[in-house]
Design goal:
With about 70 residues, this protein is mostly helical. Helix content is about 85%, strand content about 0%. The chain has one domain. The protein contains 2 helices and no strands.
Length: about 70
């Protein structure tokens, strides 16, 4: 332990630990909020990708129908 810690009273040490706990709690809360935003973003990305896949499938069917239609070589 450093010289400053050695001269701290028990009450000062407890107060300092309380401040650290408060800071850690705030960081965890911020991380949890960030994780929720990332989760929502990932879910939206998944929905968008599925929508694009459906559009691509529809276009593929249309192209196949045109290419395979009568009079088209």
């Amino acid at each position: 332990m450093g010289e400053a810690t050695a001269t701290m009273t028990t009450d000062e040490r407890i107060e300092k630990l309380g401040e650290r706990i408060d800071a850690l709690t705030m960081n965890v809360e911020l991380l949890a909020a960030d994780a929720q935003v990332l989760l929502k973003t990932a879910q939206q990305d998944g929905e968008n990708i599925r929508a694009l896949a459906r559009i691509a499938e529809i276009h593929e069917r249309r192209i196949s129908a045109i290419e395979g239609g009568p009079g088209v070589s």
